[in-house]
Design goal:
This protein is an alpha+beta fold. Helices cover about 45% and strands about 20% of the residues. It contains 6 helices and 8 strands. The chain has helices at about 20-30, 35-45, 55-65, 95-110, 130-140, 165-175; strands at about 5, 15, 65-70, 75-80, 110-115, 120, 145-150, 150-155. Helix 4 (about 95-110) runs antiparallel to helix 5. The longest helix has 15 residues, at about 95-110. The chain is elongated, with a radius of gyration of 18 Å.
Length: about 180
C-alpha cells in the first residue's frame, strides 16, 4: 500500500498513487511553465513524489500533455483543460486568473455569508462548481479549499476568523463586475 509523504514546502501529504501523481502534474503544469521532463521530475520530487523518467513520460502521455509555445515564445508542457475544451493552453497569468474570478463572481455570485473560517456562496442552479473551479484556479492564499454542490459552495479560510474578510472580498469582486 502506498504511503502519504509530506512535501518540503509544508503542504499537505500526497499519497504515492497514480491518481495523486497525475493531479499534481496537472497542478504544476497549470501553475508554472515547465520546459522539460527533468524539470517536472524535480518539481514533483520537491513535493515528495519520486518518479522515473519512464513513469513521467507515460503519465504525460496519459494526461494528453503536449508541448506548446507560450506567449514568451518558449516551448512548455500543457495539458488539455478540464470540462470539455480539449485544446491545451498555456497557464493563465495571475492577472488573467484574477480577472476570470472577478468576471465569474459578478455573473454568478448571488450571496455570500460567513461564519468563523467558513464562507457559503450561493449561485444560480448548476453554477456553483464552475465558480468554485475559478476560485481554485486563482490560488488565493487565504483559501484552504472549496466544496461545491449545485447552487451552493463553501470556502474554507486558512485564518480561523477569516471567513468574513473572504466573503467581503468576493462581494467586492462581484460588485466591480456589475
Amino acid at each position: 500500500m502506498s504511503q502519504a509523504q509530506d512535501n518540503e514546502h509544508g503542504g499537505p501529504a500526497v499519497p504515492q498513487t497514480r491518481t495523486a501523481r497525475h493531479r499534481r502534474i496537472v497542478d504544476i503544469l497549470n501553475r508554472q511553465p515547465v520546459r522539460s521532463q527533468s524539470q517536472l521530475a524535480k518539481l514533483l520530487a520537491d513535493d515528495g513524489l519520486s518518479v522515473t523518467q519512464a513513469t513521467l513520460s507515460r503519465d504525460l502521455d496519459e494526461l494528453g500533455a503536449v508541448k506548446i509555445r507560450n506567449t514568451g515564445g518558449e516551448l512548455i508542457y500543457a495539458v488539455p483543460s478540464e470540462g470539455g475544451f480539449r485544446t491545451p493552453q498555456a497557464p493563465l497569468g495571475e492577472s488573467a486568473k484574477e480577472e476570470r474570478m472577478r468576471r465569474l463572481s459578478g455573473e454568478l455570485l448571488i450571496s455570500a455569508e460567513a461564519s468563523a473560517n467558513l464562507v457559503v456562496l450561493r449561485t444560480p442552479p448548476g453554477a456553483a462548481q464552475f465558480l468554485a473551479s475559478a476560485i481554485d484556479q486563482a490560488e488565493l492564499q487565504a483559501i484552504l479549499g472549496t466544496i461545491a454542490g449545485d447552487d451552493t459552495l463553501m470556502l474554507i479560510s486558512r485564518d480561523p476568523a477569516g471567513g468574513q474578510a473572504l466573503a467581503d472580498h468576493l462581494l467586492r469582486l462581484a460588485q466591480k463586475e456589475s
